[in-house]
Amino acid sequence: MTSRPEISIPTTSTSSTPKPYTIYHITLRLPLRTFSLQKRYSDFTTLHKTLTSQANGASPPASLPPKSYFTSTTSSPALAESRRLALQAYLQTINTDPDGRWRNTSAFRSFLNLPSTSFNGHHTNDIRSAINGASSRPITDPVAWLDHHRHLKATLHSARLALTKRDQSASPQSQHECSTSAKKSLVQAGQIIANLDQGLKTLSSDAWGGGGERLGDGELRRRRDLVESARKEKEGLENLLNAMVAKSSLDATIAQASAASKEKLLATSGEDQNARRKPATGRVLGKETDRTRALDNQGVLQLQKQLMQEQDEDVDVLAQAVARQRKVAEEIQEELVVQKDLLGLLDEDVDRVQGKMDVAKKRISKIN
Predict the structure, then answer these.
(1) pTM confidence score
(2) Distances (CA, A) of 100 to 5, 31, 88, 121
(3) 76 secondary structure, DSSP code
(4) In angstroms, rounded to a whole number, what is the distance separating the alpha carbons of residues 193 and 187?
(5) Are 230 and 189 in contact (CB under 8 A)?
(6) Residue 362 and residue 41: Cα distance in Å, rounded?
(7) Distances from the Cα of 366 to the Cαs of 119, 252, 302, in angstroms?
(8) Using one digit for the tens of pLDDT, what is the confidence trace for 298-334?
(9) CA count, 13 A, side-chain hemisphere, 70
(10) Contact 2, 121 (CB under 8 A)
């Protein structure tokens, strides 16, 4: 069974333009996200005419509420409420009707700001398979791209939590499980980053003919910055994981060397008290290297402490890099809020200009 969005019109509002009109707030809930949009009654009438035209003259299964010539919805709350319920029923009837020729038209999908395959169950399956790492296809749907990026941030957050839990774990088994979980999340994040990056390259290509929404240059640059930021965060987490694994291996080597040295000393203590002062010969401390072969036990211990200190310094550097990436992400979030407000103002300006153009067209038609 195909997955369809849940459509509702929970509220209305009045515009702040010189000639006020009623705005209907439409809410859509999809399998992976929820969003809202605003429409006027005139938008619904245009939709109704376009649906009839694209369905070869067949009218939609629901009718629009009639236009009121003597009472305005801005001055009559009862009329606004009844029209809200009627418009909500209109959209829901088209969405749930067994005959899908109206809801599958480009006019209906464009009216609800949905991609060309949002009503197709295969689209949802493609998104889920890509998120689960089962798909390596580029993501060329602008709306699905944002869904994948949102999941990418959650995946990186899961990897970070796994690394934190690993650092706090005391048992080797728990550390191994946390490392496996973090590595799995990082591999999945790498696949999503590759899909997002390839999708942006396809969307920015002059030969793009996917039939969906085309992104502007500013939006493409913003999304490239998001991908680059996620890639740097992923690389920082991978370096941190490698440093933790190397440190654990080093600690295990030191523990093994200490145990072997203690065992050898205990074995020779019963033979001769003076033999303990003689340098040990034929030492077996795991895999000897050129740096440890000429050192005694104290020298090996000092060398291991030095290596551990270097590893700690590397971890501090990586922690600073992760903190910088987090600060960049917060600044990007603030910028997104500002851009959203600007887009809202632009939308109001467009509606106001559209109203003026409609009035001008009517006057020109009268003159002609």
Answers:
(1) 0.42
(2) 14, 19, 18, 13
(3) -
(4) 10
(5) yes
(6) 18
(7) 42, 90, 96
(8) 888 888 888 899 899 999 999 999 999 998 888 898 8
(9) 0
(10) yes
Contacts of 222 (CB under 8 A, 6+ apart): none
In the block, which residue shows the tokens 């399956």? 125
Q: How far apart are CA 12 and CA 23, in angstroms?
A: 6
d(CA 33, CA 53): 31
Question: How many helices (H) and strands (E) are present in the chain, helices listed first?
Answer: 8, 3
| Residues in a beta bridge with 26 | 37
The answer for residues whose C-beta is within 8 angstroms of residue 335's C-beta and 6 or more apart is: none
Angle at 130 between CA 127 and CA 134, to 5 degrees: 135
d(CA 175, CA 165): 8
Cα 197 from chain centre: 13
Contact (Cβ atoms closer than 8 angstroms) between residue 241 and residue 186: yes
Length of the chain: 368
> What whole-number distance in Å separates Cα of residue 192 and Cα of residue 151?
9
